[in-house]
Amino acid sequence: MKLVAVSSCPTGIAHTYMAAEALEQAGKAAGHEVHVETQGAAGSTPLDPALIAAADGVIYAADLEVKDKQRFAGKPFVDVGVKKAVHDAPGVIAAAVAAVEAGVPAGAGETPAAAPAAAGPRAADRNAGAGTNVRKWLMTGVSYMIPFVAAGGILIALSFMLAQVAWGGAEGAIEVTGVDQAQVVAAFDPLSLQHWAVVLLATGQLAFGFLVPVLSGFIAYAIADRPGLVPGFLGGAAAGFVGAGFLGGLVTGFLAGGVALWISRWNVPKGVRGIMPVVVIPLLSSAVVGVVMLVLIGRPIAAAMDGLTGWLDGLSGSSVVLLGVLLGAMMGFDLGGPVNKVAYTFAVTGLATQGLASDATQYRIMAAVMAAGMVAPLAMALATTVRKRLFTHAEQENGKAAWLLGASFISEGAIPFAAADPWRVIVSSVVGSSVTGALVMASGSTLVAPHGGVWVLPLIGNPLGFLAAVVVGTLVTAAVVVLLKTLAHDPVVSAERAAEEQRDPALVAPSA
Amino acid sequence: MSTTTPLITADLVAVDLAATERTDVTRRLIELLVAAGRVTDGDGFAADVAAREAQMATGMPGGIGLPHARSEHVVVPSLAVGKLAQGVDWGAPDGPARLVFLIAAPASGDADHLQILAALARRLVHESFRTSLLEAPDAATVAEIVTREVVPS
Q: Is B78 in contact with B111 (CB distance < 8 Å)?
């Protein structure tokens, strides 16, 4: 068996290294390959990612918070504290082997503080509740997706900013999206700011193309390990193809992980065993996930979108405020998914109507839709700022980028939050976005541009009313999500908090 | 001081150290470090070691006590070794300590020094290393074994 471990201690000069040596020796004696990363005072050399990828399980013999813990996400682990590794390394190795054989990534609900006292593998590790595992799988997918959201979203926002200069005004943010990207790339002029803006936009959009596949792929990876990657990524791409958005990606992630795990447990003849991981599992699981997504889910989604669009068209005569509530709710529901797309397309299609007056309902609808689409990322950014403790570290980091993304009407900034905790985030997002949609309609704000966020503020009629509506919706969504998360017990967040509290005494100790 | 200062010399080794208390043993070893000019303030360093010891006892398997601290009172990374005439409880589950290693690390030790201390900690896990020290006849042999065996990997 291949194991990787991390050791650390308050002073970083004794236990860290004794634990490392003891684990390596005990592993060797028991016939296992053990590689230890010593996070001590002499600096630590990170484990080779290939070693981590090949490892069957992880040992945390760490009294400080493990650095870059997400590297080990999804692998079975034991968390024993450094002292136990020094005094009973063979026992720790045995516990790790047992955890690997149990096959389930261990529970995060246990606090490290309780760990050193435990004698063997902690029972809770292997019997982690189903809810805890689902959260961990989700968080694995989300943690890999977040850098794509941040990189892609910020590139797009930068493109909008640059476009203002390049085209000389707020229209730039609109112009930049109307350009034929292939043509610009083919005849790229390094002196043209417009070309630079287009290239930044194209790069950001490419990064966004990975959001759902990466989310789906790494959920499947967390469930089924490497065999889950191919069907997971493919399922995410299929979800994108049928317009199912990140909710579709969550479905394909779990489906792909489940199918791959199931197939990998088949009892197959010896001759076939060798080609299982490379050919059989990816082939069969991809076929299942692809067919399910394209055939079984794709058509109902397309039909539902048509139905919703027809229904919205039929509502044109009714109260504009009610329409604002509905469109706002749809924008906040799936953040770029099918429902969001119906509302957005409804608004953009209205813009194309010829000969509209400057205060036409179509322009008010566009303003309501854009304002509502800005609420979710801004609210998550606000919530992570005022209530850090309710969010994981990855979410807190993503919250910082979400300010810019929300201000730029890039709703995707909120996807990591919604994917990690769908119902609480979606409920709060829908509530706040519909408030914003209604307020914009009531205020009579108008917008002639299909996107751009604050970058097209000069194109907005009654910009103060627009901004006020965004602020109110943001406050509402942030308040609701904070309330819902306060009432809930999140195993992943609690584990991170426990690790921090464990670490605090070390921080105040004079010798640490 | 330069990195060539050896971690340990014969005058930092106390054989047949007679003491019955952890603090007493540590105190005697610190005196050796102060006498050698490696620690400037014995009381200050003792307080730092005690603080670390209070966090978690440093008794190690195989009859080892490993008090240690990074402290501003330390001039150069040093190791003082005490071979105890009688075992002293050092908080290890498998019994009292017969060999005590006091590690003194400067608060801002450079990587080379810290690598040597890391290598020492790793060597202590090996029974052969501990046995050779327990069986060493005199202070000079103890210092020689440590200097020879503890090389950064």
A: no
Q: Is the pTM of this model over 0.80?
A: no
Best of B49, B53, B55, B108 to substitute, by most chain A Cβ atoms within 10 angstroms, is B55
How far does B107 lie from chain A, in Å, by closest CA? Answer: 8
Q: Residues A2-31: pLDDT tens digits?
A: 999 999 887 788 889 999 999 999 999 988
Inter-chain touch B58–A14, beta carbons under 8 Å: yes
Reported residue count of chain A is 512
- What was the pLDDT predicted at A439? 96
Enter the CATH code of domain A2-128. Answer: 3.40.50.2300
Q: What's the number of CA atoms in the CB half-sphere (13 Å) around residue A492?
A: 25
What are the Cα distances from residue A73, in Å, to A138, A378, A388? 11, 28, 22
**Residue A156 to residues A145, A168, A348, A410: CA-CA distances in angstroms?**
17, 18, 19, 9
CATH code for the part of the protein at B10-149:
3.40.930.10
Q: Which of A13, A87, A506 lies nearest to residue B121, judging by beta carbons? A: A13
Give me the interface pTM, i.e. the ipTM: 0.87
Q: Each residue of A203-260: pLDDT tens digit?
A: 999 999 999 999 999 999 989 888 899 999 999 999 999 988 898 999 999 999 999 9
Q: Which two tokens stand for residue A203?
A: 């790069």
Extents of the domains making up chain A:
2-128
Nearest to B60 among A43, A63, A86 (CB): A86
Q: How far is A16 from chain B (nearest CA, A)?
A: 8
At which residue do the structure tokens 């504290």 appear? A81
Q: Taking the C-alpha atoms of A428, A432, A434 and A435 in order, what is their torsion angle to the nearest 10 degrees?
A: 140
- Whether residues B105 and A43 touch (CB distance < 8 A) is answered with no
Domain ranges of chain B: 10-149
Q: Is A485 on the interface with B (CB under 8 A)?
A: no
A10 vs B contacts (CB less than 8 Å): 52, 55-56
A82 → chain B, closest CA residue: B56
Report yes or no: A321 and A364 within 8 Å, Cβ to Cβ: no
Residue B15 · residue B139 · CB < 8 Å: yes
Work out the number of other CB atoms within 10 angstroms of the CB of residue A403: 17
Place of tokens 């850090």: A388
Q: Give the catalytic positions of A in this structure.
A: 9
Q: Which of A7, A9, A13 to mutate to test the interface with B (most CBs of B within 10 A)?
A: A13
Q: Is residue A414 classed exposed, middle or buried when 0-12, 13-18 and 19+ CB atoms within 10 A define those classes?
A: buried
Taking an 8 Å cut-off on Cβ atoms, the answer to whether B55 and A509 are in contact is yes
Contact between A375 and A401 under an 8 Å Cβ cutoff? The reply is: no
Give every residue of chain A whose pLDDT is below 70, as ranges: 103-131, 316-317, 498-512
Max Cα separation, chain A? 83
Strands A446-447 and A57-62: unpaired
